[in-house]
TrEMBL record:
Protein's UniProt name: Radical SAM protein
Organism whose genome encodes this protein: Halorubrum pallidum
Pfam hit, one: DUF8061
InterPro entries per UniProt: DUF8061 (IPR058374), MJ0021-like (IPR040087), rSAM (IPR007197), rSAM_sf (IPR058240)
Sorted UniProt keywords: Coiled coil
Ranges in a coiled coil: 234-261
Domain DUF8061: 262-331
Entry-linked SUPFAM superfamilies: Radical SAM enzymes (SSF102114)
Length: 332
C-alpha cells in the first residue's frame, strides 16, 4: 500500500463519511450514488444516517476507526460540514486519526488552507474524464502544488476507465504523491447510464465493468511504483469484510458468534423468559427482548432437539447500526 489511508482501509479501519449529495459542477455518467445519497443534504457515517455530531463519534467507536475517508458533493455547504467533522474527529481521537478527502473539484488555496487547519491529512483529486490528458497548465496541476504548500498530501483517485499516462507524468514530476485507480464498477445508481455509454458487466461479476482490468491499464499504469489498482473484489473481501469484523468484535454479546464474513449469528426464540430461567440457562447465554428471547444459536438447537422449546430460528445479521438481517434459518 502506498498511502496510510489505504493501509487503514485494507484493515477495515477507515470510516466512510459521506457529507453531501449534490454536485453542481459535475454530472459523471459513472457516478455510483444511489437514490438515498444522490442530490441529498444528508450526512452518513458508514451506513448510519447522521442526526448529530455524536452519531459520527459513535460510529467511529463502533468500528474502532483508525481514520476517516470523506466524500460527497461540491458546494460550499459541503466544505463547512467537512471542516467541522475534521475538527470533531481530531479533537476526539487525536492526530493519529488519519483523514483523507475525495473530491471532484479543485477548490482553491483558501479551501486547501481551511482543510489543512481543520486536520485533513490527504486530499485525492478526481478530475473530469473529459480533461484527462490535457491537465498540465490548468487548475488541476496548480492545485496539487497549492495543496502541498498548505500541508496536505496531494494525490489522484480515479476510476479505471482507461489508461492515461498524464497521471504518471504528475507522479514523476513530484506534483502528486500517488494515484489510486479503482476498478470501474456498475451500481444501482449508474447502471442505466453506464449501459448507454456502452459499458457492460463482467461475466459472472456483480459490479465490475468489462474491460476495467484490461492490459493497458495494468501495464501502463498499475505497474508504476506510485500507482495502486484497487479491485472490486478487494473492496468487498478486505475493506468491507474487515470493517464488519471490527464492528462485530466491538458489539458482540457473549453468546453471539462472529463469522468469517464479519456477521453475527444468534438464536431467536418466541418463548416466555421464565422458561429459560426455569431450565437454568445461564444469564450470559441469552437476553430478553420485548417479544422474544435471543440466545446462543447452538443452545437454541439443543433446547429444540430436547423438547424444551417448540421452535425458533437462527439469525445472521450485519453488525451495522441498522442490523440488516442476512439470513433466517427455522429451527423446529
Amino acid at each position: 500500500m502506498i498511502s496510510k489511508g489505504c493501509e487503514q482501509c485494507a484493515k477495515g479501519g477507515k470510516m466512510v463519511l459521506f457529507v453531501y449529495g449534490y454536485c453542481d459542477q459535475r454530472d459523471c455518467f459513472y457516478c455510483p450514488l444511489g437514490e438515498n445519497r444522490k442530490n441529498v443534504t444528508d450526512v452518513y457515517a458508514n451506513e448510519r444516517k447522521v442526526e448529530s455530531d455524536e452519531d459520527v463519534i459513535e460510529e467511529a467507536k463502533r468500528m474502532s476507526a483508525l481514520g476517516t475517508s470523506i466524500t460527497g458533493g461540491e458546494p460550499q455547504e459541503a466544505m463547512a460540514k467537512t471542516t467541522r467533522y475534521l475538527e470533531l474527529l481530531k479533537d476526539e481521537f487525536g492526530e493519529d486519526h488519519h483523514t483523507h478527502l475525495y473530491t471532484g473539484i479543485t477548490g482553491g488555496r483558501e479551501n486547501m488552507r481551511r482543510l489543512s487547519e481543520a486536520g485533513l491529512d490527504e486530499i485525492r483529486f478526481h478530475p473530469p474524464v473529459e480533461l484527462w490528458g490535457d491537465m498540465h497548465g490548468t487548475e488541476w496541476e496548480e492545485i496539487l502544488y497549492i495543496a502541498r504548500e498548505e500541508g496536505l498530501t496531494p494525490a489522484f483517485e480515479i476510476p479505471g476507465i482507461r489508461a492515461e499516462p498524464e497521471f504518471l507524468e504528475f507522479l514523476d514530476e513530484g506534483a502528486a504523491e500517488f494515484c489510486n485507480i479503482n476498478e470501474f464498477e456498475m451500481s444501482d445508481g449508474n447502471y442505466r447510464r453506464m449501459q448507454e455509454e456502452g459499458f457492460e458487466l463482467q461475466e459472472g461479476h456483480m459490479s465490475a465493468v468489462e474491460g476495467s482490468k484490461d492490459d493497458a491499464i495494468l501495464e501502463e499504469m498499475a505497474s508504476h511504483e506510485k500507482v495502486y489498482f484497487c479491485t472490486s473484489v478487494f473492496k468487498d473481501a478486505a475493506q468491507h469484510r474487515n470493517r464488519l469484523k471490527r464492528m462485530a468484535k466491538n458489539i458482540r454479546r457473549e453468546f453471539d458468534e462472529v463469522t468469517d464474513d464479519g456477521t453475527l449469528v444468534y438464536g431467536k426464540a418466541f418463548a416466555d423468559a421464565d422458561r429459560f430461567e426455569a431450565l437454568g440457562v445461564p444469564e450470559e447465554f441469552y437476553t430478553v427482548k420485548s417479544d422474544h428471547v435471543e440466545v446462543a444459536w447452538w443452545l437454541l438447537e439443543e433446547m429444540v432437539e430436547d423438547g424444551d422449546l417448540a421452535e425458533g430460528e437462527i439469525v445472521e445479521q450485519y453488525p451495522t447500526v441498522d442490523g440488516t438481517v442476512v439470513e433466517r434459518t427455522p429451527v423446529a
